[in-house]
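Long-time lurker. I teach an intro course on protein structure, and each term I like to show students one example going from raw sequence to a predicted 3D structure in token notation. This year I'd like something fresh instead of my usual example. Would anyone be willing to generate the tokens for the chain below so I can use it in lecture? Attribution to the forum is fine with me.
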Amino acid sequence: MSREVFDEIKRQIPLLDYLQAQDWRPARQLSRGRWMGLCPLHSDHKPSFLVDSVKSLFYCYGCGRGGDVIRFAELYHQVRFPQALALLHQWRGLPPLLHEAAGFYQMQFHRHAEAVAYLLQRGLHQAEVIEELRIGYAPGRCLRAWLTSLGYPLESLQQAGLVNAEGHDTYSHRIVFPLEGNLYGRSTGAATPHRFLPGTKGGLYAWEKVRGYPEIILVEGMFDLAVLWQAGFHNVTCALGTHLNALQFRQLCADDRCGGKSRTVYLALDSDANGSGQRAAQCLSHRLRAEGITTRCVELPDGHDPNSFFVGGGNAHEFRRLLERACL
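-- Reply from a regular --
Happy to contribute to a lecture. Here you go:
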């Protein structure tokens, strides 16, 4: 790949835009076009990350790393140069395409009784929550035709992962949740339960809505989050699994001032029979405490997650009692 191609990528993707899309915020402006903030590449407590938006370059005085937007993508996502280029290409082209796909899936949801029935089975019935989460349904065999009719070439659909190499819709018989830069598909049948498009799962779900709360409830799955929102708990976010990526961990540790109070994170992970959810909660708790974050581990009934707790007859009052009894 020629130097001209690299320069064109850097021209099309300004470093500051990409940083802000990864939830980086400058702490102060040094001069015109030059900003200083916390380093997103290591645990930073004092702003040491310099960004020159005119030259589209960065340098961290703490960890000593610097470069352009391609180098940042390599370091931030912990990938090699070719994968960093692919992620940048994907980030540049995905937003409008994923927006169209998510909108199409939303249209399909109410047209398929099996999708509505599945949500009811998972305890989700409030139309307002379904609309706010922009939940859709992928019946399969129809997304490709819709997107190509809008002018998107087949190659773009395949690069995004929406269509497979054989030309068929990747998602079929799946409930679809739009994420930041991705789509999460939950199978309604016997297929692999969880599926994402290529790329990262992004940050914590709806982080901009919950980051200001002094107390935050962290759950594993989107249906856990959905039933809690439905029950009136709006300070809930989701990591889409027990392993937090670097961005998600930094988000929980960020000083968002939380109304002048220090942050407490309630870890409401699955109470698995094999203890994996409980071990993950303890491990994450230790990591967060090392960063000065207060944590409490919510003890759900054996074999339950927040979703099954409500589906099994639990209510908001009972869940609130679990929060009150949560251990340090």
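Some talking points for your students: The first strand starts at residue 28 and ends at 31. The two ends are 53 Å apart (CA to CA).
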